[in-house]
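hi! just following up on the protien thing from before. the input was this:
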Amino acid sequence: MTDSTDRIGTGVAGLDEILHGGLLPGRACMVRGGPGAGKTTLGLHFLSNGTPDTGVFVTLGETEHQLRRNAELNGFSMEGVAVLDLSPGISESADQDSYNLLESWEVEGGAIHDQVLRYARTHRPERIFIDSLSELRFLSPDTFQFRKQVLSLLRQLTDEGITVMFTAEQGGPSDEDLQFLSDGVLQLEQLPSGRVCSVSKLRGSGYADGRHYYDLGAGGMAVYPRLLPGEHSADFVHEMIASGVPALDTMMGGGIHRGTVTVISGPTGVGKTTLAAHYMRQAAARGERSVIYSFDEHRTTFLQRSEQIGLPMQEILDSGRLHFQDVEPLEFDPDRFALVVREEVEQRGARIVMLDSMSGYQQSMRGDDPLERVHALCRYLVNMGVTVLLLNEVHAIASSELQVSEHGVSYLADTILLLRYIELDGELRKTVGMLKKRTGDFEKTLREMTITGQGLHVGEQLRGMRGILTGIPEVAAPAPTGR
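and the predicted 3d structure came back as:
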């Protein structure tokens, strides 16, 4: 990753991370996007992040009054930011501070070129934001003159050591030309899945590829960099973690290993969350912090149900060793959710993370590939030594075909636990078995599991039956004896 000490920050922390520290000084960066994408908001961040009285906003559309008023409504202070108002119309006053230079819009683009350069050489700003450079195309007689004026303007400004950011309308008549003439191109888009930004060009520097979600709000712009698991790692001990349920731990060969992914698969109501919560209780007893991200169940319901089955969780929640977060899928995009998880791991030291469930997590993808996103998140957590409990709901109560996941996540798992219903003697019962464990041996049999007011109980191995995984087991015929 490039050293950020010589970078010019954009004022948006997540964007600077994508840009490997910010923009290179003395370069020109283009921000392209449709109406309402946040181009002007980003420009205000860029100018506000600089030294006071060293930035200038060149406006070719909004008047200075409109600009400052809109910035105030969005919670921005433009104190210390000068405005060079080259918008169309008549100057309302002769006040030199407003620097309204053009009395009429009936002027060639070359006049704007000259006025911007004159201002820059007189006031020596460190940063200039031009909104929007696309307007020059309508004032130029042809494409050649437009390219010539823009290239001259950008080159002379950057030769003065000024870092330039300018906007352009996506798909406009000058869009392609401006992309070639700029040193960097930042794309802002509004998709059905949400707002995303991407970098397609940054001369002299690397950057984070892909689309990254962002929000616009009262505080301006917030960018959530796409999670790249290979850039994160931590040292940890590959020790065994027990559930605290003796028979279950025996079946699992002692438990699960730290820094691995365990998929707990089963139909609704079979006990996936209850089983996983036992690991949280044991972690709290060791003084470790765990986090439950619940896409399906509210905190109150979880606490009430846990209390009823002899697994009280309120005490460890109050102690801070457990955090339960309700996740409303439509309020989160995958990048924002990944940042929330990172903060729990890197700032608060979470050692176990439960995602409940994969179906709920998929809803937060809003059109993204859920497998790609959960892969990145799980790989990041494993690299950081965090144990992942990924709950996966299968829709079939009973089936002749064994299905671990309907989302294709089984390849991610170091350990797979199967929870299933069976019908036996006219009664609905639950079973638990282990399908996979990369880090050690385990029982290859199934055990009956019950959840009572005294907690989770795992019984003896189920023997003498076949077809258990179909949900309708049969008594197996005794093996023939030799004569």
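The longest helix spans residues 143-159.
DSSP finds 14 helices and 22 strands in the chain.
cheers
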